[in-house]
Amino acid sequence: MKKQILIGAALLASSLTFAQKDELKAAEKALKSGNTVEAKAALDQAQSAAIADPKYAAQYYFLRGKVYFDMASKGQDKLTSISEAAKAFDKVVEVENGKGKYSVEVEKMRTEAINLAVKTAQDTYTAQDYETSFKAFEQVYRLSPTDTLFLYNASLVAVQSKNYAQALDYYLELKKIGYDGSEVNFVATNKETGKEEVFPNKSQRDLMVKTGEYVAPKEKKTPSKKGEIIKNIALIYLDQGNTEKALEAFAEAKQQFPDDSSIIINEANIHLQLGNKDKFKELMAEAASKDPKNADLHYNIGVINMEQGNMEEARAAYLRALEVDPNYLNAILNYSTSYINEGNAVIDEMNSLGNSKADIAKYDKLKVKKDDLFKSGAKILEDYMAKSGKKYPEVLDQLKNIYGALGDNENYMRVKKLIEQ
């Protein structure tokens, strides 16, 4: 009885083997005739038995990859088809250890699939279909994992499509694989224009130098993208409201790029959003020390100090911003406003006084102090306009308000006429 069962099992296995061979042949025949639907149906029938049998597994995955590649080539659910083809190609190489006949065929198809995915990514990007574009760039990378630039491209386009969750996944993967992104540019100076130009490769650059039209050939390495990737990870976490992970990402970025002021600025902005104004001010000062020529940094330090009532520190920061950029209009307006705000604080004190002789005497002294502060604010703006030779509407409006508050009717009317001109 036991022998009969074993013989029956052997017959069953034999019939399954013949069945899967027939189905694989049927799939192959359907593919040759261009009938991908029939080929896919035959492969679905053969799937479980073929995968379990090492003798037929490579052939099965090869045909599966071919079916999906043909579907992609015909535009049938292109990106999903490319993705399924890529998975099948990888399984062929895995089963054959990259040494069998199907592995060779698969690599040919892989190259064609890469070209198809690249074209899809570029065409859809040009058409501003960013969602399809970033998915296509991802498929190029999945087909050719050494071409990490395409995963980086996918991350950039995902941001353009505002799919920040997907962009975050790409950035995290780029970070995990240690993507650097720096490259060598081959440049030379155009003798006629005096400007440096970048060439596609060294050979072309050297050829143009030999013509005598270009001089000073050199290689320039572009900056690493690692800092940018970590910053973007942090910014997306921040956009998602995950401030804890955002701060962790910035802390990591600062360790890798301690002199990158933009990392410090972004970290500072998180603390500002969290209401940690002292930490914001501390970090902005740190960033300014690393990037002293950044007028915006000094300006923002001035703003936070003014909000906190530190007028002298605010004025010093605004003056530093104006040293870097003498035409920084908001800096000059806020520099003037710092005196107005201080004068307004004096008004509050004046209004709190009573009618006693001592209070009246104090009131008169405070009024002189207030007027002097307002006049200082006006002088800053008058000097700025005289030096620049321009009439800025914002400056004129602020001047008119100051002279109105001072009761200086003559200057008020003068500025009013300038506004109306």
From TrEMBL:
TPR repeats: 227-260, 295-328
GO CC list: cell outer membrane
InterPro entries: TPR-like_helical_dom_sf (IPR011990), TPR_rpt (IPR019734), Ycf3 (IPR050498)
Key words of the record: Repeat, Signal, TPR repeat
UniProt xrefs under Pfam families: TPR_1, TPR_16, TPR_6
Signal peptide, first to last residue: 1-19
PROSITE patterns: TPR, TPR_REGION
Name of the protein: Tetratricopeptide repeat protein
Source organism of the structure: Imtechella halotolerans K1
